[in-house]
Amino acid sequence: MTLFRASLATGTATLVRILAGLVLNKVFAIYVGPSGLAQVGQVGTLVGLMSGVGSGGVSNGVSRYVAEYRDDDQAARVVATALAVALVAVTTMAALSALFAERIAARLLDSPDRAWVIHVVAAASAASALSGLLSAVLAGMKRIVPITLIGIAGIVIALICGVALTVHFGLAGALAATCLAAGIPGIVALIYFCSRADLRTWIRVRPDRDSLRRLGRYSVMALTAAIAGPTSVILVRDHAATTLSWQDAGYWQGVWKLSEVYLSFAASLLSAFVLPYLAAMRSADVLRNGLLHVLRTLIPMVAAAALAIWLARYWIVRLVFTDAFLPMAELFWLQLIGDVVKIAAWVFAYFLVAKGLTFAYVATELVFSASFYLLSVLMIGRLGLLGITAAYALNYLVYLVTLAIIVATHLRALARVPAVSSPPLV
């Protein structure tokens, strides 16, 4: 499948996700308002964090090795090992969530009485981790269409449940709906796998130590990303709510959510298509051309989408949210600049993942997640709420430059190694 066809398939699922996200955000805006939306954002970020931890951080490694191995037995051992790792991670996560549920709820939601939300988050995160792992298998096999259909089915079911819960139960329903949006696709993915005889045989293979060693470095990278990034966002949102107000935090959450929705296309394409192809490439010249091809394809699309959103920002706020959210329109321009830079940086970050450059990936994730929080604290003090988006754009600009230097250095070193034939990125 070519990048264009993969973009079409991924774009279809992303369009459905965008429409569903817009509908659900509109319902949230009407029934819970800006302050409620900020709490929904805290829960959503926590679900993302725990989903990443629950997968054991091996999904990217699964995509790489399933794509790289032509032998089904080898690929099956990798998948079986990944499932075993995920089972241990999910069990540990559930136990810790049950133990600290009241404390987490008090910190994130200002109410220990909402400890039940943390239990629901744990269950949804386990299902979401399963979905990510199974999707990684399909991505490695380059089965983009099943990934698309599974995603669409999960999105539609979650939307119906989410709207019903929010309308009938207000903020409590919205918090539960946020959890379901992450968990339901996992159930759909499991049903698909159980229906395919060629895939069912893979889970009957015993895990092995060699596969665990291979997946280990990917686990370190993915767990770092799953924990560091969402934690910085939670801390920034909490700082905004504490120093400004929950309402102001809700305005920023609205802008952040819109970014997540339209950038999900690029993120899905990078994960499902670009990562396996970069993993399969060997020579410096082919890798360089592949990176340039991805950048030339993705960045103009993201930039065009960002420009369109900025031009229509007031109309979008009224359509997706309500007039109560109009102050957030002033945050768009810096956020959208940061979005474009962010996707360019992610292309280089996925290169580090594809080539297993563990130290470089982990170090940059930790440093720039921390710097986003520190810059936000500094700039909120100087610019108020606008300071978060300024910190976001500046942080990703420095991140992009740093990653570009790391990748260029690696390619120069690789060019000195005898070339190995690689499949072209077409």
List the helices and strands and how they pair.
Layout: H1 3-54, H2 59-68, H3 72-109, H4 115-140, H5 144-195, H6 197-200, H7 209-243, H8 246-280, H9 284-311, H10 313-320, H11 332-354, H12 358-383, H13 386-415
Helix pairs in contact: 1-3, 1-4, 1-5, 1-7, 1-8, 2-3, 2-4, 2-7, 2-8, 3-4, 3-7, 4-5, 4-8, 7-8, 7-12, 8-9, 8-11, 9-11, 9-13, 11-13, 12-13
Describe the structure concisely for a colleague.
The protein is mainly α. The chain has 13 helices and no strands.
Properties at a glance:
single chain; mainly alpha; 86% helix; 426 residues
Structural overview:
- The longest helix is centred in the first third of the chain and has 52 residues.
- The protein has 13 helices and no strands.
- The C terminus is likely disordered.
- It is globular, with a radius of gyration of 21 Å.
- It has one domain.
- It is mostly helical.
- Helix 2 packs antiparallel against helix 7, helix 4 packs across helix 5 and helix 9 runs antiparallel to helix 13.
